[in-house]
Amino acid sequence: MERDLIELRIPNKPDYVGVIRLTTSAIGSKVGLNIEEIEDVKVSISEACNNALGKSKNFVIKYDLNNEKLEIFVENVSEENINDNLKEKKLGILIIKSLMDEVYFTSEGIKMIKIIKDGMDG
Questions:
Q1: What's the gap between Cα 35 and its chain centre?
Q2: In this structure, which of 18, 51, 76, 77 has its CB flanked by the most CB atoms within 10 Å?
Q3: What is the DSSP letter of 110?
């Protein structure tokens, strides 16, 4: 299968995190992740959104799908500038790192990667 790129731009409000989780779940299913892997990705996307909450007008999430991996980039997520009063965000970053296969931070946000074991259908 060729590479598919999906970009989701949705209001940066807590009410929309559920929509992002559902979208991520559907994409995970499409690329062939099993139920446990989909749950890992959903928890990770939720934590990333919690980290980005209130930092911009919209959540911007980019999904890069191919036969080998699902890459998810979320803008405005950082592991820096998290002070002791924001222990939830620190814990969220640790959760993401434990559930995803690879995690990278850039000046724009976070890239989370889940390796696809069986490859995509169709």
A1: 16
A2: 77
A3: E
Q: What is the pLDDT of residues 4-21, one digit of tens each?
A: 999 999 999 999 999 999
The Cα 49–Cα 27 span in angstroms is 17
- Start-to-end CA distance of the chain, whole Å, equals 6
pLDDT of 64:
97
3: number of Cβ within 10 Å: 9
Cβ neighbours, 10 Å, residue 25? 17
Residue 75 predicted with pLDDT over 90 = yes
- Band the pLDDT of 122: cuts 50, 70, 90: very low
| Dihedral (Cα; 8, 103, 86, 9), 10-degree rounding | -10
Q: What is the radius of gyration, based on Cα positions, of the chain?
A: 14
Tell me the average pLDDT of the chain.
90
Burial class (CB within 10 angstroms; exposed 0-12, middle 13-18, buried 19+) of 78:
middle
